[in-house]
Amino acid sequence: MSLKVVELFAGVGGFRLGLEKSDFEVIWSNQWEPSTKKQHASMVYETQFGNEGHSNEDITLVATDEIPDHDLLCGGFPCQDYSVATTLNNSKGLKGKKGVLWWSIFRILEEKKNKRPKYLFLENVDRLLKSPGTQRGRDFAVMLQSLNELGYAIEWRVINAADYGMPQKRRRVFFLGYHRSSQLYEKVKVSEKLDWILDKGTIANAFPVHHTKKFQELNLEGDLVHITKNFNPKGKSSPFLNTGIMIGGKVYTTNTESNYEGKKILLGDIIQKGRIEKQFFINETDIDKWEYLKGSKKEKRISKTGHEYYYSEGGMAFPDSLDSPSRTIITGEGGPSPSRFKHVVKTKNRLRRLTPVELERLNMFPDEHTKHENVTNAKRAFFMGNALVIGIVDQIGRSLTIKLKD
After folding, report:
1. pLDDT tens digits for 105-120?
2. Are both 196 and 118 inside the same structural domain?
3. Active-site residue 79, yes or no?
4. DSSP 185
5. Which range of residues forms the domain containing residue 309?
6. Phi, psi of 15 (to 5 degrees)
């Protein structure tokens, strides 16, 4: 029997594409972009998957009882400030800052009470483990403790997709959560924690690692307000390393390195064959601008306050090498204007930007997944800059289904 999934912050459906390759069924989804009048990502999502069970509303305004009960909650939630504040009108004295989307996940899980999903599968940028700069790791500690209070054990790993043969150097942190009512919670509880992290855990089975020697344990102490105010106030580095688990408020964390010797997909492997539209080729008159932006520089500049300083940055490959995985796609990848960060490739002795299909392939999406009559190529590039590499979701999802059958 397939596991029922709710997909939050769905974008154009990266989690869904990865999970539905194995034993999962998305029964409800939500996508809302607050900064735009037209909901382009939601349009694409509905075109690909239909509108049944899909919500295009601000998730902070969706009542929990409108969300069906489910086995797994997934989503790539935005990275924001996770701090909490005391309130007089809240019986628990805790409330996430208004508009911070992590607290929408927390609210849904909290209000599900006896019908909380047994499993969580979440994704974020890896700087979450180190933010904010004044209290390194505080945001992640708040997140872990909030899930601990709801009865979840968490395992996490920072994964660079290219380290496992995928076509893009995209580094993200992935989390799996197991509710205390699940069999996997019990397996984590009785396990040798380092063994689970390195060898026996769900993520370790999906993405094998080598161990580095550093290993740390810490306890999450106090409620969320206490952690917000007091976690690591003088620490220059975060106590959370790139891999770890948390259960019962105790954290076990270490650094790991990928252990992969299989096939590697390179940027050159995803290049489209045949005719490419003229709009993607770089105008000869703009090449000097591209070369300047991509090149190394050390320049004297003047700040708004009149202060004189030197600005320097290293050079970038121009064009991008076809013989290695691509650099990370960014949201500003689209459009013809010269840029330091956009990809440029040389094909048939001409320089050009990447097409929407090539950007989709770098995230392992099906060709033309984001094509829509009301969506521009620049917006399609924006989608891919926000998306995840679905090969990672696929492999972790398959590993989870195997674990549940053990």
Report:
1. 999 999 999 899 999 9
2. yes
3. yes
4. H
5. 267-354
6. -60, -45
